[in-house]
Amino acid sequence: MSDVLAELKAGIVKFQTEVYPGHQDTYVKAASEPQTPHALIVTCADSRIDIETITQSGPGDIFVTRNVGNLVPAYGEMMGGVSAVIEYAVTALKVRHVVICGHTDCGAMKGLLHPEALEKMPTVRSWLKNAHAALSVASSLAESDEKPSELMRRLTEENVLLQMQHLRTHPSVAGAMAREELTISGWVYDIGKGKVRISDDGGRVFRPVTIDGDA
Ligand SMILES: [Zn+2]
Questions:
Q1: Are 111 and 196 in contact (CB under 8 A)?
Q2: 171 CA to middle of ligand 1, Å?
Q3: What integer best gives the mean pLDDT of the chain?
Q4: In a domain? residue 127
Q5: CATH no. for residue 110?
Q6: Above 80 in pLDDT, residue 215?
Q7: Is residue 139 assigned to a domain?
């Protein structure tokens, strides 16, 4: 047995013996009722993002989909997992909010800035086409003497905003927003600082979430 599988099994045992007993009622209740998550969160597959911990969500609270770069293909293009998740979350589960959550130090954003690094990853390169408009905007807005870190921050934010635009092209989302049953927001999670900044209107200003909960 691989060391990795042994480590994962040890984690399961720890969950079963140390975590589950203290929260058994929550899990039993969650299993006995249909799920009614209040939000769909689209975030990056990056292993450092623990979205349930960041939002302090428990079983049944949030519907989550993750992919490289927290991308949402515009409706009609690359119809697949992400599109199906969105349609199901909005139409069947009737989530009331959708979040696009990007993050600092994102490998996908680095890949956009350095496509030569993706030479041996044609699938990733193709997937990242869903973020090319963000690269174009971020590059266009860049000052001539802009630091690479500033360009990364700008690209990460522009990507979140672009994916919010793509979200609106999905009929299920557009319809629910028109009925005022659904709102959307864009987040950037700073892994090192544990902070989240939010654009709640799709504009370029990402405001830190303050202690009283306002974004
Ligand atoms: Zn990422």
A1: no
A2: 26
A3: 95
A4: yes
A5: 3.40.1050.10
A6: no
A7: yes
